């Protein structure tokens, strides 16, 4: 078997092409995560017009999937511990396919909301299981890069959804115009998500179960076979040592519960609080406002609908490119330095956006930005995406997949991911109302959270670069 990396010194482990391929297959759940959550971007105005929704109502219609994601993230850990990581990924794929079909054929706003919530459950499950699975099959010396595949898949999903939104709207002459089979373009924006969901479902049938789950279930022969196959770990002594390390880290108990997360820091272990705050800050800096509402935002400040779609696609391309840079740097520079740079950069660029919108005139659909503030806001928004994509986008998923001790990883990650989805819901649901107060206020608030995230990283986040999962402590 060919290796894509040299063996980690002293462990006998290799980063094989096999581990790259199965990590990529698992990360496809992240693609669906990005696609399913961002696809609403191109449909916001059309859905609002079709169902006659207020700002608060459209905010809930856009964000309701995130409530489902919180539920899916919460239950994914226990399901993965009981039935396995791979089986849980298959269930997530089925939920996402059914949701895409139902949302595209929705006959009313509440019907749409129900199907979005169903899809959200699948997204939440995928958001927890993919980083867990990738961390558990990866050698420590490349785990950061392979873990970053989750975020790369997310941003590629966002890009694909925004590109398909733009193409469908362009083909129909507008998102609210009929396209094929008499269905409006915004409905096809949801329906096309069936394809990647089915592809994901097929691919996960070809990936092996996590060796850590197999050891926890007492299936040592299968775990040994997976370690040989995935890590090319053929040295008998190294293989026995690895199995012993996994057994030792899991021996206290296999099915962790919330009781195991209890600790001296306000009722929880410090590492759990760090995971929760990483998740919350990732959302409270407002990134998903860019990916859920940007077409509406740029349309509202003077760009045409077609140009607004194009700007949004370009922003998603920027996000993909900087995520590739982050993947190249994560195992060289580490997680904490990238988070620090990202927080500082986001604080500056969000602050600049807040300043830009103090010069806005009009309100609602009549809002406009005089020159040079419109272009400045556009540049600042893309610079903000660069800093996020280089840091908080991929680094949070890498850390959440690896920072918890083995004995609590699944339940701790479920708690952290649920907190992330709830934070995402709060930011997404409140943005239309905040925008009516003033975009300057909204972006100023996100800038303040970026400053707080910088303080948090410097004071609380510890580096995990190069550490084995069995070395992680409470």
Structure description:
By secondary structure, the protein is mainly α. Helix content is 74%, strand content 0%. The chain has 19 helices and no strands. It has helices at residues 17-38, 44-51, 55-83, 85-104, 109-137, 143-172, 185-191, 194-204, 211-216, 220-231, 236-250, 270-284, 287-300, 305-333, 335-357, 373-390, 392-402, 409-437, 439-460. The radius of gyration is 22 Å and the shape is globular. The chain crosses the membrane at residues 20-40, 52-76, 88-107, 113-134, 146-168, 188-207, 265-291, 311-330, 337-361, 373-399, 411-431, 437-458.
> What is the molecular shape?
globular
Low-confidence stretches: 1-11
Strand content: under 5%
Q: How many beta-strand runs?
A: 0
User: Structural class, judged by helices and strands?
Assistant: mainly alpha
How far apart are the first and last residues' alpha carbons, in Å?
37 Å
Give helix % range. Answer: over 70%
Q: CATH class, please?
A: Mainly Alpha
Membrane topology: Multi-pass membrane protein
Domain Major facilitator superfamily (MFS) profile: 22-465
GO cellular component, one term: plasma membrane
GO molecular function: transmembrane transporter activity
How is this structure best summarized?
With 474 residues, the protein is an all-alpha fold. It has one domain: Growth Hormone, Chain: A, CATH 1.20.1250.20.
Secondary structure: elements and pairs:
Elements (H helix, E strand, L loop, with lengths): L16 H22 L5 H8 L3 H29 L1 H20 L4 H29 L5 H30 L12 H7 L2 H11 L6 H6 L3 H12 L4 H15 L19 H15 L2 H14 L4 H29 L1 H23 L15 H18 L1 H11 L6 H29 L1 H22 L14
Subcellular location: Cell membrane
Catalytic activity: D-xylose(in) + H(+)(in) = D-xylose(out) + H(+)(out)
Main location: membrane
């Amino acid at each position: 078997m060919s290796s894509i990396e040299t063996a980690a010194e002293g462990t006998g482990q290799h980063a094989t092409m096999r581990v790259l391929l199965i990590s990529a297959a698992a990360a496809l759940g992240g693609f669906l995560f990005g696609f399913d959550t961002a696809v609403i971007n191109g449909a916001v105005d059309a859905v609002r017009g079709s169902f006659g929704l207020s700002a608060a109502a459209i905010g809930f219609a856009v964000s309701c999937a995130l409530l489902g994601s919180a539920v899916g993230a919460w239950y994914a850990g226990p399901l993965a511990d009981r039935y396995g990581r791979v089986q849980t990924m298959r269930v997530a794929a089925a939920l996402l396919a059914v949701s895409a079909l139902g949302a595209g054929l929705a006959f009313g706003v509440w019907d749409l909301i129900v199907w979005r919530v169903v899809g959200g459950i699948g997204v939440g499950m995928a958001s927890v299981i993919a980083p867990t699975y990738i961390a558990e099959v990866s050698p420590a010396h490349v785990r950061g890069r392979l873990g970053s595949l989750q975020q790369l898949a997310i941003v590629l999903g966002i890009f694909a959804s925004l590109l398909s939104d733009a193409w469908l709207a362009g083909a129909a002459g507008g998102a609210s115009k009929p396209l094929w089979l008499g269905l409006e373009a915004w409905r096809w924006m949801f329906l096309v998500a069936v394809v990647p969901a089915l592809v994901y479902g097929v691919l996960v049938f070809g990936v092996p179960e996590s060796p850590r789950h197999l050891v926890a279930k007492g299936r040592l022969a299968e775990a040994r076979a997976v370690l040989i196959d995935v890590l090319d770990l053929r040295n008998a002594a190294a293989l026995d040592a690895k199995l012993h390390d996994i057994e030792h880290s899991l021996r206290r108990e296999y099915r962790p519960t919330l009781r195991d997360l209890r600790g001296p820091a306000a009722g929880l272990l410090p590492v759990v609080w760090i995971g929760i705050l990483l998740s919350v800050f990732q959302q409270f800096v407002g990134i998903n406002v860019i990916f859920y509402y940007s077409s509406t935002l740029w349309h509202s400040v003077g760009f045409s609908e077609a140009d607004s779609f194009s700007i949004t696609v370009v922003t998603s391309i920027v996000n993909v490119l900087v995520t590739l840079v982050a993947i190249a740097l994560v195992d060289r520079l580490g997680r904490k330095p990238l988070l620090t740079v990202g927080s500082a950069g986001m604080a500056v660029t969000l602050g600049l956006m807040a300043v830009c919108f103090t010069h806005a005139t009009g309100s609602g659909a009549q809002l406009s930005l005089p020159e040079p503030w419109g272009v400045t806001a556009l540049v600042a928004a893309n610079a903000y995406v660069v800093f996020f994509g280089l840091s908080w986008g991929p680094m949070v998923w890498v850390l959440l997949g690896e920072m918890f001790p083995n004995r609590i990883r699944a339940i701790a990650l479920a708690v952290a991911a649920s907190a992330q989805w709830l934070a995402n819901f709060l930011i997404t649901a409140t943005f239309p109302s905040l925008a009516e107060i003033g975009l300057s206020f909204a972006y100023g608030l996100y800038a303040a959270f970026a400053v707080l995230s910088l303080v948090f990283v410097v004071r609380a986040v510890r580096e995990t670069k190069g550490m084995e999962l069995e070395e992680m402590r409470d």
